[in-house]
Amino acid sequence: MPASDLPLHPWPLSRLLERIEREWGLRRQIFGLTARRFFPVPGDVDLIWTGDGLTAATPVGPAAGPHTQLAQNIALGWLVGGRSFELKTVQVLDELEIPRPCIDMEAVGYNVEWSQELPLPLSLREYVKAWVLLAVLRRWEPVREVLGNPGEHLFELSVGYDLPGIQTPVMDAFIHGLTHAEGMIDELRGEIGGAFGGLRDIPIPGRIVQTATLSTFHGCPSDQIEGIVRHLMSAHDLDVTVKLNPTLLGRETVAGILHDHLGFRDVDPAPEAFAADLQFAQAVAMIERLRGFAADCGRRFGIKLTNTLVVKNARGVMPGETMYLSGRPLHMLAITLLDQLHRALPGVLRVGPQDDAPVSVAFSAGVDKDNLIETVGLGLRPVTICSDLLRPGGYGRMAQGLRKLARHMAAEGHADLSALQGGAHERALAAGHPDAVAAYAAALADPATAARYGAEGDLRPPRQVDHVLEMFDCVACTNCVTVCPNDAFLTVPTPAGGDLSAREQYLVLAELCNDCGNCTTFCPEIGSPQVIKPRLYTQPQVWQARGRDGFLLEPGANGPTVRGEGEAAARLQKMLAGDALPLSLDE
Ligand code: SF4
Ligand code: SF4
What we know:
Blueprint: H1 13-27, E1 29-30, E2 33-34, E3 49-51, E4 54-56, E5 60-62, H2 71-79, E6 84-86, E7 103-104, E8 110-111, H3 120-137, H4 141-147, E9 154-159, H5 163-166, H6 169-179, H7 182-189, E10 209-214, H8 222-236, E11 239-244, H9 251-261, H10 271-276, H11 280-296, E12 301-305, E13 309-312, E14 322-325, H12 328-344, E15 349-350, E16 359-363, H13 372-377, E17 383-385, H14 396-412, H15 417-430, H16 436-445, H17 447-450, H18 479-483, E18 489-493, E19 504-509, H19 518-522, H20 529-532, E20 535-537, H21 540-545, E21 551-554, E22 561-563, H22 566-575
Parallel strand pairs: 5-17, 6-9, 9-10, 10-11, 11-12, 12-16, 15-16, 19-20, 20-21
Antiparallel strand pairs: 1-2, 3-4, 7-8, 8-14, 13-14, 18-19, 21-22
Helix pairs in contact: 2-3, 3-6, 3-7, 8-11, 12-16, 15-16
């Protein structure tokens, strides 16, 4: 694929840092997020997660997906308290055309996107860039004044989808690049300037990942999964987590939960996925074999619950015959599966108070601010979030969840995460359950508790107004800014004295928009914000290649010079004069 046809054109580190410096000076924001929405690690309780030689200042982070695709996405996740980043899944087929729209969050949460949209070399650069960006930000005094000591963070590689693909030279080079990144880090140091110039020579570890999460195709047999785990451990010295599918529950159980318990009668789990996928007994035997292999070679093996669920696509929002269900129903499926695995593997899974059990359990399934306490209280590490961050409030929802967790721990007298887990275990025993996992599974199975996870829950579609969206002015709800995982929307104040009435105008950074469709879902007006609002470019070659779509911004004497057609270009020129634009365009 020619570079100009890529769906995304990430910005260089120098431009990201220049934006941060300018935006902080003008608005006390970073990538559109105001300082008061950052998450300072609390002083009264300890959220540190340690285990298997890893340390992270919180047990939470963004899941592999749209929030871990670009460097600025990862920085936003870090500012709101994420400290464990599962990088968006990479695979050997790195020129896939993803159908659009690829995200449908109107009610439950579906998608049809699955792996990185950038070619492997660009993905590698993006992840190393994010690593350097966080190393700089965590030492930058203005950020430290808000966050205090931000503590440690970690990146996890996520790879798919089969052994031959993972063994190819390009995938090998990608993984090597993340475990031996010294050269690229040194190259990126040359882009650290301006207010950050004093941080150019800070120590930055060259081994970016210690752990890989394996995401497999539906239908991947257990010997293939085991072959990949052995390869990653032996050839790349990585600890490995295998992401399991909710199909392990069997179609009858899944359909019973979705249809009868939660009331999602129109969700049709694809029968072929259940027939082709690993069966429960095979998974249990595989976990036993792989933990033995890991122990023999001095590595760690873990599982992650769960992958998304393949269902028939009957909604007509996204293209294709099938789509992937996530969000709240998946939470219920994943906890049910956790309960079954925990009972089938006594003493093996590291949940509840069993800190020394051999197999760690990571979790990513419908986690939100309202169930983070229960999920973290089970001992699941790390807990990663995706669907919830795609709703209005965006990345800030992670900080809300962490604040709620910290307040709960302080109120209950739990000084750290072990105490939180101990408290959950004690309560479970007192209520007659064998452990906290069983207690939580039983609570979710209770119709009263399950109500919010079901079709009658509060996942209402966004409010609609009977007005066709226009390039300038709108109801100015800011949803397009917060729901965009790529930070591709920004605002500028409306100039005084003109014919526009909204307080702010909304602009698209077209190089960072992959047309995922999420802002269209949450825009209350009729139309697609990413298409209708002014589309801005900062890279002339991208603007030219896209047929001079939108407007090119070039450095100018009084704000940017706007190139583009029609009256709108003149209007934008006036709007962006002076200090209005929180970007720096200097080369
Ligand atoms: S601007 Fe809209 S369509 Fe583009 S990436 Fe953001 S949310 Fe998706
Ligand atoms: S474009 Fe739509 S989503 Fe964005 S601020 Fe305007 S009304 Fe809200």
